[in-house]
Amino acid sequence: MIESAGSKATAIQVDMRKLEDVQTLFQKTIAQFGKVDILVNNAAGKNIFKPTAQMTEDEYNSMFDITRGVYFALQQAAHHLADGRRIVSISTSGTAMAIPAGGAYAGCKAAIEHFSGALAKELGGRGITVNTISPGVTETDGLVLEQEQVNQMIAQTPLGRLGQPADVANAVALLVSDDAHWITGQSIRANGGIV
């Protein structure tokens, strides 16, 4: 679709849990396009919601391994992005709520918000903006809630529906645009007002 619209595109498959793959992502992108202008950190694995007393080490690690990959993607962006460019990472509005069985999930996403806030201060002198988008419950194939829980979320959301992928994509598009050059170090909740 990108190429049919007249632009260049490439697909690079990487495992964000592996530092060497994160480095390869940037190397191949630079080899193909000569530079990196925007990083959108949208890596995700399986979101596991379990009470703290029941979470296994492997389940915990599976989520935090992705978070580690996000950190090193931010590091690569700090090395490779030119001045005045944009970084956006995806978190969750769940970091603003204490959700039973959501401690590990929200914790790994809260780390991303803090990584981004610190990096915004580190790169601000170069005019690079660093922000996070924190979606609410979004209707995707990865939605793991039961229908009753979905209905409760819709009832609690002032705009009266679940988020759609385009809602999140539009927020990202805003933050990577020139119109957002004065927004940095922020976590913007694209969640229909639920929090």
The CATH C-level class name: Alpha Beta
Q: Strand count, sense and closure of the main sheet?
A: 4 strands, parallel
CATH architecture: 3-Layer(aba) Sandwich
- The CATH topology comes to Rossmann fold
| Overall helicity | 40-55%
- Average pLDDT score: 94
CATH superfamily membership, which one?
A: NAD(P)-binding Rossmann-like Domain
The low-confidence parts are none
Distance between the termini: 35 Å
Q: In percent terms, what proportion of residues is strand? A: 5-15%
Radius of gyration: 17 Å
Number of domains: 1
Q: What's the helix-strand series?
A: HEHEHEHHE
Structure class: alpha/beta
Shape: globular
Structural features, described:
- This protein is α/β, with parallel strands linked by helices and 195 residues long.
- It has one domain (16-189): 3-Layer(aba) Sandwich (Rossmann fold).
- The chain contains 5 helices and 4 strands; from the N terminus they run αβαβαβααβ.
- It has a 4-stranded parallel β-sheet, with helices on both faces.
